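Try it yourself: sequence plus flavin-adenine dinucleotide, in.
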Amino acid sequence: MQFDALVVGGSFAGLSAAMQLARARRSVCVVDAGAPRNRFAAAAHGFFGQDGVAPRTMIDQARAKLLAYPSVQFVAGTAQTAAADANGGFALALDSGQQLRARKLLLATGVQDVLPDIPGLRERWGASVLHCPYCHGYEFGGQALGVLYAVPGSAHHVQLIADWGPTTLFLNGHTDLDAATAAQLQAKGIAIEPAPLQGLEGPLPQLAGVRLTDGRLVPLDALFVAPTQRMGSSLAEQLGCAFDAGPMGPLIRTDASKLSSVPGVYAAGDAAQTAQNATLASADGVMAGVALHQSLVFGT
Ligand SMILES: Cc1cc2nc3c(=O)[nH]c(=O)nc-3n(C[C@H](O)[C@H](O)[C@H](O)COP(=O)(O)OP(=O)(O)OC[C@H]3O[C@@H](n4cnc5c(N)ncnc54)[C@H](O)[C@@H]3O)c2cc1C
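Structure, out:
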């Protein structure tokens, strides 16, 4: 069977796109490997009407609503290869060996966070090691916060985090923070700790403090980091999509309608935009789903 659309990635962006296509009575198949980016967090925050709900619950509920539409299929699995076919459409090969075909393809495959290699950090990701204050800052409001310096932009990040509570900037051995910026941060009450980190301590997944290589323990409730990112899958690369350099890693280049540089291939969500959260990924998916439907109608 050839679908009107294949959607790879069944999370905030992919399910939102597929909903638009389902409601347009188009045949759509969603393929999902079941690893949304925020799966490490017990609760997602800030999503309209769903604040504090577990990410899995949100996704399960959205998928159940989508599967109520008769033209939708869902396949749990990983799309390993994607290629243009001889009829102007696209073919996916899944890890199960299953082959799927469609006239149009949407990549909603997200990104993977590449965390700093510090003992005890990975185990606390999404609980007491965080990246987004809007997602998880409120829960640590007024508590002892830290920011791990990575790039000069960390000096901007730390001023933001300090709005949630007393904050320490851990330079972790970096020496490129200039004196004027350091003075500006200290004037705002931000402590600066130059020593390298040895590891994070406390009963998992909580954080009690950061152990420095000189032996001191700095008490801390949450540490904010800014991980670099890589694509959630290699499918865009396989298809020859162009990429842009995002602030934290590559992003699939799209136009305003979420069409990639490859005709017929759309991309949405964290994989294809700089501003990344669940709401924005969902909205991006809606845009892509509508644009993809209209390209089916108008043959563009
Ligand atoms: C720790 C943490 C906490 C967060 N908390 C919040 C929060 O509280 N509020 C908020 O708004 N945002 C939060 N975010 C951000 C949010 O998780 C992302 O913005 C959102 O998940 C992006 O949605 P997406 O659909 O683009 O990608 P994802 O949710 O990452 O989904 C991509 C999907 O594609 C699948 N996939 C990838 N490759 C393939 C393939 N080849 N074949 C099949 N399937 C594939 C994956 O398995 C996954 O299910 C958080 C992020 C992190 C890291």
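One thing you can check immediately is this: Residues 2-113+228-298 form a domain with the FAD/NAD(P)-binding domain fold (CATH 3.50.50.60).
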